[in-house]
Write a structure and sequence with these properties.
Length: 319
């Protein structure tokens, strides 16, 4: 009887230990219908706070991100997210990234790293959540391509769109902040300068949006699925879209330089019509408020004029 009790007690202890280990693992990682991410923050409480924000972003959008990138039959592997202070980030990646680089996804799609300290100090309009989702999108692309080389514009365009970084203002900036880069020149490298890189990201994002508009929202998973079968991105692109990669980039570059094509792109953005509707509504209500104020002022002025022109009332004799 004692033996049976001992065995039961040992089994209970093993179950409790396993449950605690699983709970501890879940504290550092999230297993969803999308990718599983293991967070490794370095830098004390501030880094833990950043990790919490990234976990929240993963819960909100991780499954949708993976679905938009990976084929339906894909089995994404866990991704380790290193959240490093600037000194550790520089020690590991100095010389491998441009000066403005604050995050990186390593080849193979199993590790991403973010300089959370520099991003928090002044990373521009992108929040840490956007940066995390951007690098996670790169990791999913790396896993989905399984070693097949794809153009840099494709990688960055997918990452910008899936992280939610693309804004209407980016399309406007692409048109007005200097000459847009040719997509054909963004196959392997991006400009080293900050301004040139921003334009390259915008052009890449717009190219992927154009692909989705022309070939459907599932174009990225279909391209990745075909690439793993052909072991060649250009062959997969031709098979899925019906045109060569070079033909698409040439057509896109020609359209990017055409003001008429830009006009079509601008008016096709739903966000623009929402913005215009808000502007019209704002102008209407502002005008109505102005008219009401003016009417009130005119009423006061008219009453004042009548008071000045009226004769004084007759005096009443005493006694």
């Amino acid at each position: 009887m004692r033996l049976v009790a001992s065995v039961v007690l040992a089994a209970a202890l093993l179950v409790a230990t396993a449950s605690r280990a699983q709970a501890g693992s879940d504290a550092d990682s999230l297993a969803l219908s999308g990718p599983r991410v293991v967070f490794r923050p370095r830098g004390g409480t501030p880094a833990e706070s950043v990790a919490a924000r990234c976990r929240a972003a993963l819960l909100r959008r991780g499954a949708d991100l993976a679905e938009a990138i990976l084929p339906a039959d894909a089995d994404p592997q866990a991704v380790v997210c290193l959240l490093l202070p600037t000194d550790l980030f520089q020690q590991r990646f100095a010389g491998r990234l441009p000066d403005w680089g604050i995050a990186v996804a390593l080849p193979g799609g199993r590790v991403i790293a973010i300089d959370w300290q520099r991003q928090g100090a002044g990373g521009g309009p992108r929040g840490i959540e956007d940066v995390f989702l951007h690098e996670l999108a790169h990791a999913m692309l790396e896993q989905g391509l399984a070693g097949v080389a794809a153009p840099r514009w494709f990688h960055e365009g997918v990452a910008v769109n899936q992280s939610g970084e693309w804004r209407l203002v980016d399309g406007v900036a692409l048109l007005f902040e200097g000459r847009p880069p040719r997509l054909a020149s963004l196959t392997s490298r991006f400009p080293a300068g900050d301004a040139g890189a921003r334009q390259a990201y915008r052009a890449s994002a717009l190219a992927v949006r154009a692909l989705r508009q022309r070939h459907g929202e599932d174009i990225v998973p279909r391209l990745l699925s075909a690439a793993t079968l052909t072991h060649d991105f250009d062959a997969a692109f031709k098979e899925v879209t019906g045109e060569a990669t070079a033909g698409f980039t040439t057509r896109f570059d020609r359209g990017l330089s055409s003001p008429w094509a830009w006009a079509v792109r601008v008016v096709s953005w739903p966000a623009l019509w929402v913005l215009l509707a808000l502007l019209v509504a704002g102008a209407f209500f502002a005008r109505r408020a102005h008219n009401r104020r003016r009417l009130k002022e005119m009423t006061v002025e008219e009453a004042s004029r009548k008071g000045e022109s009226s004769p004084p009332p007759p005096s009443v004799p005493e006694g």
